[in-house]
Amino acid sequence: QQPGPAPTRVLPQVGVTAHKTMRLLPASGRKATQKVVVGDQDGVITCFGIKKGEAVPVFKTLPGQKIARLELGGALNTPQEKIFVATGSEVKGFTKRGKQFLSFETNLTESIKAMHISGADLFLCASYIYNHYCDCKDQHYYLSGDKINDVLCLPVEKVNCITPVLACQDRVLRVLQGSDLLYEVEVSGPPTVLALNNGNGGDSGEEIVFGTSDGKVGLIQITGSSPVHKWEIGNEKKRGGILCIDSFDIVGDGVKELLIGRDDGMLEVYNFESADDPVLLSDHALSESIASIQGGCVGKDGYDEILACTYSGWLTGLTTEPIHREGGSGEELKLSQEMQSKISSLRSELENLQIKVLQEREKYQQSSQSSTAMSSVPAFSVNDKFTLNKDDASYSLILEVQTAIDNVLVQSDVPIDLLDVDKNSAVVSFSSCDSEPNSNFVLATYRCQANTTRLELKVRSIEGQYGTLQAYVTPRIQPKTCQVHQYQIKPLSLHQRTHSIDHDRPMNTLMLKGQFSFAEIHSWVVFCLPEVPEKTPAGESITFYFQNTFLGTQLESTYRKGEGLFKSDNISTISILKDVLSKEATKRKINLNISYDINEDSVRYTLKLIHPKLEYQQLLAKKVHLIDALKELQVHEGNVDFLLPKYRSILEESDQLLEEYKKQPAHLERLYGMITDLFIDKFKFKGTNVKTKVPLLLEMLDGCDQDGLIAFFEAA
């Protein structure tokens, strides 16, 4: 049996939830159903079971601080039925009946972001700090180089030692031993979640499944000396980032499937047909990001299901229980009596709620007429994510609100392109704006359809132009309230952190010297480049590697107190850094000694990287311009057999060509801009102003081959 194609369990809604805050308690009997326990951002822990399709409460705690994580624990090799929650810097423990038995105030100065429990061992992480406690006594401490997203410990009963693993934002899993780093594991994207393979670490107990914010999933064996990469699933379908992972045998073949929840609401089930790589068995789309996922028996004895908890606190069950239907395939299918009564009870509940809402609205309207009435601003929660996509060098801005969105106003003080998103059903309208007095370059309003709680926008920026993008989010609540969220567009906004670079490329060098501290130069690098941790790194110096997602050029930055060295194969990158770093140092009244070494071969190298993209875009533009004329010919002539094969293929592929052209507006202009910048920057470092020759360059870019372009750069 495969999981049912649609949710059949309607479960109570809790408050807004964080990742990994919903678990299933172990069943008490062999075939008994399991209880659900979930913690929300109101600080409430709700525990309930299901009887005859209805939720039966077990316990509910009073509100408090936000619950960031919920884990189950207990003595090793016994049922894990004690409930532990992380709220603020405190860990609380509850029995399965809801009685509190632990309140442990940690020595962490920040809120707990991640937690793992193994027997008497408690592993906690704040933004950069990892702490290990045993029986609530401090054991080990580690300061990470970048933000920690999740923590896990290999099963002690299998590997016979405590091996914590940290998932860090800089695309690294850090394996610890005590308070020391044992080794680092490089992964393909920023890891957001960790889980033990099969729920127990596999046969060896050393296998960890990780999920990344760019939607990849992989399996790594963490041995005592080095990691072994087993498999990785890419994200060809361009789905959302991974938020939660579980292992459960939903098919009933004795092999556990991999259950995955994504931030775009996709729930996926992978099975292991061959022993090697997992294969997608089924998927299901929910309307919100999936914060927690679990497999178990919840609704009815003998029928397993997948339970998902979404961001705004909806719990959804996908069950293997067959929906009994009468009649053949040709007749109208009749739902079972139980199903019909469930639907009718839901309908009446919905009608009652609608009546209640109308009554409360009328009461509010009447009270607002009185002179003494005070209107309070309703608080609402927004879950946002602003990330750079490597595939198309654009930023994704995802806004998720706990209630329906009315509209989102996007304003930017730098030139940006807003790209089309297929999943987006909102109606967009652009307003003209004056860039001069208010430095307003973009003003766009997205009006959402009813019941839209999640909006995804795509933004493409121009390197060298930096500022702030603002999103004004207005939900459908009374009185009208708006929240403003700001996102920094950095000077080198299209650069992404990478583990290594090609040192054989011709590189240009920028050298800075001056009376600045390590923290000061680090803050300048944070200002210039994305994905750099805000906290000043430990040690005396640091090296970061970056790759330009649009062109594939690279950047190496090494700096310490009083000295900074930046190397790139793209002169424009060096030019932007020189301008921005000088400006930042001037603001702080720091005198900088700037020297640079320009490699002529690097210009040729960068042009060779740009030219194939330029040719492709020029050809695409030409084909698109021909489509209308060719279609007119087709209408007049009846058939197109007389056309050359290349023109026939344009007609055949017209839909794909138009789709691609629509997805990449201003792509050609962007490439022209990059070549122009490269030309100006090359001569700027020689002290020559070539702006008068730019029109000549733009003229020859149409239909110019690579050698001709390089020759123009050298002749100038």
Précis, in short:
The protein is an alpha+beta fold. The chain is 22% helix and 38% strand. The N and C termini lie far apart (71 Å).
Question: Explain this structure to me?
Answer:
The chain has eleven helices and 45 strands. The chain is of the alpha+beta class and 716 residues long. The protein has four domains: 14-247, Methylamine Dehydrogenase, Chain H; 382-489, Immunoglobulin-like (Sandwich); 495-598, TATA-Binding Protein, CATH 3.30.310.200; 601-715, no CATH class. Strands 40-42-43-44-41-45 form a six-stranded antiparallel sheet, covered by helices on one side. Helix 6 (600-637) packs across helix 8, helix 6 packs antiparallel against helix 9 (667-684) and helix 9 crosses helix 10 (694-701). The longest helix has 38 residues, at 600-637. The model is unreliable at 1-7 and 326-332 (pLDDT under 50). One of its GO terms (biological process) is intracellular protein localization. Residues 336-370 form a coiled coil. It holds the Pfam family Beta-prop_BBS7.
Question: SSE layout and pairings?
Answer:
Blueprint: E1 9-10, E2 22-24, E3 36-39, E4 45-51, E5 54-60, E6 67-73, E7 82-87, E8 90-94, E9 100-105, E10 114-118, E11 121-125, E12 129-134, E13 137-143, E14 148-153, H1 156-159, E15 164-168, E16 172-177, E17 180-186, E18 191-196, E19 207-212, E20 217-222, E21 227-233, E22 242-248, E23 257-262, E24 266-271, E25 279-285, E26 290-300, E27 303-310, E28 315-319, E29 325-326, E30 334-335, H2 337-369, E31 382-389, E32 394-401, E33 405-412, E34 416-419, E35 427-430, H3 435-438, E36 442-447, E37 454-461, E38 467-475, E39 483-489, E40 495-498, E41 508-514, H4 518-528, E42 541-548, E43 554-560, E44 563-568, H5 571-587, E45 592-597, H6 600-637, H7 645-652, H8 654-663, H9 667-684, H10 694-701, H11 706-715
Antiparallel strand pairs: 1-28, 2-3, 3-4, 4-5, 6-7, 7-8, 8-9, 10-11, 11-12, 12-13, 14-15, 15-16, 16-17, 18-19, 19-20, 20-21, 22-23, 23-24, 24-25, 26-27, 27-28, 29-30, 31-32, 32-37, 33-36, 33-38, 34-37, 35-36, 38-39, 40-42, 41-44, 41-45, 42-43, 43-44
Helix pairs in contact: 6-8, 6-9, 9-10
